């Protein structure tokens, strides 16, 4: 989100070439299936009825075991993943006028923007490069802009000498809020085009939800998550149920975004100093993202996701909702619909990757938000920025 725009890291330089290809997903490894039939061959006639009853009970039992085993294993393909190299994709708030300025010189990146123009019905690259800022910052435009610019950055990296080898080495990916869609597209869960259509609808649905009920977000700087939670509780004691606030983005130590009703956010801002917060920053977003205020967007997303083909990703994609990778298409759809009303567990996701052995990471897309967060979590963790 817009929370970390103050943070910075080095931006990698990019050049030209190659074409975007949605990676073909690797089929999940074969699952152990329990046989659902029970042969009666060789059963003696005098005991046939009893044997049939026994066989049927066995069949039902075996079927139950098989179904429950399949349900458990179909979403656990990546349960034991061991990350070494990660691609990390930014979310809303990373946008800035001028982003995408190098895309025209990279044929594959330019092709993505051309496809986007057909789907969106306007010149996305022109808005990215020339603004105006107010237009680019709007939810309905910034989300598609960041999605396309981030995947264009992948193509920019591919065009560099040694870039394809880096891409091939990536064995885990994730994205901050909106960036989760980018990560799923990179991992081959859905096509670039289908992902962009989902992101377009997501931005429109979130904007509509924000318009339906006044709400806001602010970043609380200088407190740990427990103290921010206590600050929210104190603010909630002074406002009605409809105005209550909660932590919406768990970003990194000392920086957590709070979402809720306007009066609730004002109460947080008024009380922050008494909780020893260094400062609060009101975020320039449409409304209280990742809270119940976004509930009207859920049904719209569910309908669109139901019509979208989603495959098992070829590499683990870490969810913002629970910090885990998912391999079952139905579960991924549920997670994406739930994501707009659930807190973003970004800090937890990055810490888990590091704890599991992550060695290298790349931020692909506009801004330096992700690199700033990573350095706050682990100063020694290497991360490189790639943008267009």
Automatic annotation (TrEMBL):
GO cellular component, one term: mitochondrion
BP GO annotations: fatty acid biosynthetic process
PANTHER family: MALONYL-COA ACP TRANSACYLASE, ACP-BINDING, MALONYL-COA:ACP TRANSACYLASE (MAT) DOMAIN-CONTAINING PROTEIN
Taxonomic placement: Eukaryota, Viridiplantae, Streptophyta, Embryophyta, Marchantiophyta
Stretches assigned to coiled coil: none
Domain Malonyl-CoA:ACP transacylase (MAT): 88-387
Official protein name in the record: Malonyl-CoA:ACP transacylase (MAT) domain-containing protein
Molecular functions per Gene Ontology: [acyl-carrier-protein] S-malonyltransferase activity
Cited SMART domains: PKS_AT
InterPro entries on file: Ac_transferase_dom_sf, Acyl_transferase_dom, Acyl_Trfase/lysoPLipase, Malonyl_CoA-ACP_transAc_FabD, Malonyl_transacylase_ACP-bd, Mitochondrial_malonyltrans
NCBIfam families, per the entry: fabD
One protein family per Pfam: Acyl_transf_1
């Amino acid at each position: 989100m817009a929370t970390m725009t103050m943070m910075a890291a080095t931006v990698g330089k990019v050049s030209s070439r190659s074409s975007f290809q949605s990676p073909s997903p690797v089929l999940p490894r074969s699952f152990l299936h329990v046989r659902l039939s029970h042969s009666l061959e060789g059963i003696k006639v005098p005991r046939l009825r009893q044997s049939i009853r026994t066989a049927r009970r066995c069949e039902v039992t075996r079927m139950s075991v098989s179904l429950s085993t399949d349900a458990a294993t179909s979403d656990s393909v990546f349960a034991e993943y061991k990350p070494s190299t990660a691609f990390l994709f930014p979310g809303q708030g990373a946008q800035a006028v001028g982003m995408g300025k190098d895309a025209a010189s990279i044929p594959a990146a330019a092709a993505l923007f051309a496809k986007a123009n057909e789907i969106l019905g306007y010149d996305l690259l022109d808005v990215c490069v020339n603004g105006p800022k107010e237009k680019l910052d709007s939810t309905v435009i910034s989300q598609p802009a960041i999605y396309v610019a981030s995947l264009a950055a992948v193509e920019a990296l591919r065009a560099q000498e040694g870039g394809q080898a880096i891409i091939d080495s990536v064995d885990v990916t994730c994205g901050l809020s909106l960036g989760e869609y980018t990560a799923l597209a990179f991992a081959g869960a859905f096509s670039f085009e289908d992902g962009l259509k989902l992101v377009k609808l997501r931005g429109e649905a979130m904007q509509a939800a924000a318009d339906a009920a006044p709400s806001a977000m602010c970043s609380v700087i200088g407190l740990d998550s427990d103290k921010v939670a206590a600050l929210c509780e104190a603010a909630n004691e002074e406002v009605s149920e409809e105005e209550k606030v909660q932590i919406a983005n768990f970003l990194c130590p000392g920086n957590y975004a709070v979402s809720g009703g306007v009066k609730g956010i004002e109460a947080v801002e008024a009380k922050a100093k008494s909780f020893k917060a260094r400062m609060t920053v009101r975020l320039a977003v449409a409304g209280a993202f990742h809270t119940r205020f976004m509930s009207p967007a859920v049904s719209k997303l569910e309908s669109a996701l139901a019509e979208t083909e989603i495959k098992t990703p070829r590499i683990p994609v870490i969810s913002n909702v629970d910090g885990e990778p998912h391999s079952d298409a139905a579960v991924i759809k549920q997670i994406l619909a739930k994501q707009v009303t659930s807190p973003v567990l970004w800090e937890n996701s990055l810490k888990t990757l590091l704890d599991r052995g992550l060695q290298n990471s790349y931020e692909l897309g506009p801004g330096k938000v992700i690199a700033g967060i990573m350095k706050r979590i682990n100063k020694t963790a290497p991360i490189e920025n790639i943008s267009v």
